[in-house]
Design brief:
Largest sheet: 5 strands, antiparallel
Shape: elongated
Radius of gyration: 45 Å
Structural class: alpha+beta
Strand order of the largest sheet: 6-5-9-2-13
Length: about 350
């Protein structure tokens, strides 16, 4: 009896599972009495009858179809297996994980900008994330006519509209066309919202969108680099520090060990500081010539006044040498050699 009981039974499972497969359809086969349904981690099983959803099963494990599945099917819950007849339904297995896909512009996107009449040619790259969000819509728009659906199919849909969305959101959020990376987050957020609205039509939700980098033509990139270097040289102290650090790291600045290297770096920084002080002092002198002239005249007047005024102590200054004999005087009133009165 055991032989006759199980001879027609089968196993309903995702037989062609791939990591890049969004769904796979078990179809055109008859489910016999005693058959098993196997749902693995990261999978959902959807029973379909004539294109209509009969039941969605999300728990992983092995289930007896006639006793654990059929009682939960909407219109087939009263189905009875015959001795040699079964139930003909479709089972759609859906991959529930979140997919991450790399994207990149296939050709430069011309972004309108006043600086370049023909537009700024820009390439970009990054990643986006998606997952199945609406089973009913997915079945209605995609699974009804396809046996399986791959990540590559979603990528083709997204990249077909991505250039237009990049142009739209770069023009809107790209406040500095030569530093788009500073606004990459706002640009990516806008693109994600638009993509999510479009992919919602097939039951796919865009859960993330990232712009990793923007790439300019070589001549534009050279101009950006040159402009940045000129701005850095304008700050003499920063330029000296960066030059000294680069010299040490590249080995062009050498010394007798760590202490010598540090001393050389400190010397360079001090030289830069002194140069900045001198530049600031010269700028101040050039900016206030009349004030400096008045200050010099006042200083000269004070010196002349001091020269004609008598000593505040009232004492005559003693000569250092005797005018009579030339002996050295230690501040005495009379010469210790010849007795000449001093002062």
């Amino acid at each position: 009896m055991g032989f006759f009981k199980n001879q027609f039974s089968n196993v309903v499972e995702w037989e062609e599972f791939r990591d890049d497969m969004i769904f796979w359809k078990w179809s055109n086969r008859e489910i016999k009495k005693g058959s098993k349904l196997i749902i693995r981690s990261g999978q959902d099983a959807i029973f379909l009858n004539n294109g209509k959803v009969e039941g969605i099963f999300e728990d992983e494990g092995s289930f007896n179809i006639d006793s654990e599945i059929i009682p939960f099917l909407s219109t087939l819950k009263g189905f009875k297996f015959g001795f040699n007849s079964g139930m003909r339904v479709e089972v759609l297995f859906v991959n529930t994980k979140e997919f991450t896909v790399r994207w990149g512009t296939q050709s430069p996107v011309l972004i309108p900008t006043p600086q370049l009449p023909g537009g700024m040619p820009i390439r970009a790259n990054g990643t986006f994330n998606f997952k199945v969000s609406d089973y009913v819509t997915l079945i209605d728009k995609i699974a009804g006519i396809k046996q399986s659906y791959l990540v590559e199919d979603v990528k083709i849909r997204i990249t077909s509209v991505l250039d237009q969305l990049l142009m739209k959101w770069i023009s809107r959020e790209g406040k500095d066309m030569f530093n788009l990376q500073a606004n990459a987050s706002d640009i990516a957020k806008g693109i994600q919202e638009d993509l999510d609205m479009q992919m919602m039509d097939i039951g796919i939700g865009i859960t993330g969108f990232q712009v990793m980098s923007f790439n300019y033509p070589q001549e534009i990139q050279d101009m950006i680099t040159k402009t940045a270097s000129h701005e850095m040289i304008g700050n003499l102290q920063k330029y000296q520090q960066v030059s000294m650090t680069d010299g040490i790291s590249s080995g062009k600045v050498k010394g007798g060990g760590a202490a010598s290297d540090m001393a050389g770096m400190m010397m360079g920084m001090n030289m830069a500081n002194e140069m900045m002080k001198n530049m600031n002092q010269n700028q101040n002198n050039n900016a206030n010539p009349s004030q400096n002239q008045n200050s010099d005249q006042k200083s000269t007047a004070n010196q002349n006044s001091d020269a004609g005024a008598p000593s505040s102590s009232g004492d005559n200054k003693k000569p250092n040498f005797c005018p009579n004999c030339g002996a050295k005087n230690e501040g005495a009133n009379f010469c210790p050699n010849c007795g000449q009165k001093l002062g």
